[in-house]
Write a structure and sequence with these properties.
The complex is a heterodimer.
Chain A (H helix, E strand, L loop, with lengths): L14 E12 L2 E12 L3 E6 L5 H8 L7 E6 L2 E2 L5 H10 E4 L11 H12 L4 H14 L16 H12 L6 E5 L7 H18 L2 E5 L3 H7 L2 E6 L2 E6 L1 H5 L4 H8 L4 H15 L1
Parallel strand pairs in A: 3-8, 3-9, 6-7, 7-8
Antiparallel strand pairs in A: 1-2, 1-4, 4-5, 9-10
Helix pairs in contact in A: 3-4, 3-5, 4-5, 6-7
Chain B lengths: L5 E7 L2 E10 L5 H13 L5 E12 L1 H16 L3 E5 L3 H9 L15 H39 L6 H13 L2 H23 L7 H40 L2 H7 L4 H38 L5 H11 L2 H27 L5 H32 L3
Parallel strand pairs in B: 2-3, 3-4
Antiparallel strand pairs in B: 1-2
The complex binds adenosine-5'-triphosphate and magnesium ion.
Chain lengths: 274, 377
Amino acid sequence: MIAPDEPVAASANNVVIRVRGLKVGFGDRLVMDGLDLDVYRGEVLGLVGASGAGKSVFTRSVLGLLPKQAGMIEVYGLDIDRLTMGERRRVERRWGVLFQQGALFSGLTVKQNIQAPMREHLDLSPRLRDELAMLKISLVGLPLDAANKYPAELSGGMIKRAALARALALDPDLLFLDEPTSGLDPIGAGDFDDLIATLQRTLGLTVFMVTHDLDSLYAICDRVAVLGQGRVSAVGPIAELLLSTDPWIHSYFHGKRGAGRETVFRLGAQGEAR
Amino acid sequence: MSIAPAIACDNTPRGARLTLSGGWTIGAGATLERTAQAMLTKIDGARAAFIDLSEIEQMDTAGAWVIDRSRQALESRGVTAEVVGARPEHTILLREAHFRSTETPERVEHPTLTSLLADIGSSVFSAGADLVNGVGFLGRLVSILLTVLVRPRRWRWTSTFYHLESFALRGAPIILLINFLVGAIVAQQGIFQLARFNATPFTVDLIGILVLRELGVLLSSIMIAGRSGSAITAEIGAMKMREEIDALTVMALDPLEVLILPRVWALVLALPLLTFLADIAALAGGGCVAWIYGDIAPAVFIERLQDAIGLNTFAVGLIKAPFMALVIGLIAAVEGFAVAGSAESLGRQVTGSVVKSIFMVIVLDGLFAMFFAAVRY
Ligand SMILES: Nc1ncnc2c1ncn2[C@@H]1O[C@H](COP(=O)(O)OP(=O)(O)OP(=O)(O)O)[C@@H](O)[C@H]1O
Ligand SMILES: [Mg+2]
């Protein structure tokens, strides 16, 4: 495990996800057209792009849920198309996924949802399984009595939190989050960011996060990748993207909603420099 | 993947020093728990313990949890336990994942006998509630039908014909096949059993009356309950789960008018049509077997059939069909609206829909049999 303050280097063995020339489409319409992207170990990478740009499609292809027409995807240096059953199981045990709609198992309570991956992959005593599930529930900021509720009995934001708790059940090294903070109140979203940042610092977690939430981008993303026209049109620390001349990127960060935050961000950076 | 967690203990004058090493991660599974538990026994009666984390290679929230759990267990036994040598990130982890009692009220479980009796009671109650519900639903449907009849522009023709196609046209092949086979089987049994009384020709009467009065409509209804009733329940249930029904309601559209009326109406039209096809197929099946197995030529078969049955025999079967369709449609719709949030409940309601419609179809058929016998039709 790398120490948390070590700068993230782009050397080959530090790349957790490597995508080259990815093409994915539905029918004859290509959603991804020759996409390249690297995600480094221990970083939080934010993926932004217009609605319908293909962020969820990209995430699903990396997870191996969508067939691709061309290209290569490597996770932990293993080509996900050429995994043996055993390797696939090991890779899947090391990643946690938060789907855009939560995707909780509707027939299980929140606690059982969190315990489902533990039951399948690990041999733990029921007591520890219960305790860990409750720990995850309190980590993500759910009230403890939500444990015995079914997904249909939860609010939208609670579903997001419960789904995050399930994604964290096996303490994964790699976390995929599809719009984790949408549907959360600002305080909750801030707590969410703090939790991700803490986990990333303490566990050396790599986080791949699709988001529309500018606050999350400023607060926790080490790098941001911009998806447009089926490829990554820009990638880098947010300070770099702020200087970009690309019209879409410019209006994303400097538009009506982005402008105020950008000033705050710059003032904060100056304060730190001093 | 990683090294197993381990502890070493040496006694110093100031107390026991527990040195933790290896990977304290959830991947270690039962070993993780056992090793953490061993902390309690290893200290061997010392009054103070230092838990040294400096040699831990990896730790995650599960590791932090069990370490802190053991530390608190030590403290509760009057041992002063202190964590030393933790790296900054491990300190944060221990703080975030500190052991705390996590008791939540469990869902209450009743003893078996009580819950058995309660189950019986509640199923009797729900059977009654189903009946009341069904009648109420029928009433609402009729009132909507009346309003739509007054304003025919609100009638959803596209939807009705779409469902008519999927219930009747697409259901026809399987219903033809099944009835052909059942007609053939009845003919074979009739010829075989009646031969003992030298009454083989009466097989034609048997087939004609049995098929037209009972089997045609019954088999079609059962098939439609399984094929289309289940589909209606699943569609309505899935729409309920994804709040599509609520979306209709808030648009001031009545789900009954938009969704149920076209489906029920399509069923009411489809089932008599299918029953007619079923009758023909079963007679054809019976005719084939009578010809091949019973040496009754088709011309003879048809001639005897004309003597054996009247228009009323045919009508009895056909009259029943729309009522069967109504019952199937109502049950399917009521069950669909009863779906709650989970995939499991969808499965339960679809099963319930099919089982209840088949049961009700058979009960209804019995009532009709008594009625027609009473009026000598
Ligand atoms: N199963 C599918 N069949 C056909 N087209 C699809 C399918 N799934 C996604 N698409 C198309 O792919 C494109 C990208 O969709 P995607 O869900 O990835 O968008 P997104 O970037 O995640 O948007 P959002 O920010 O709104 O979630 C869209 O144009 C969508 O219509
Ligand atoms: Mg999406």
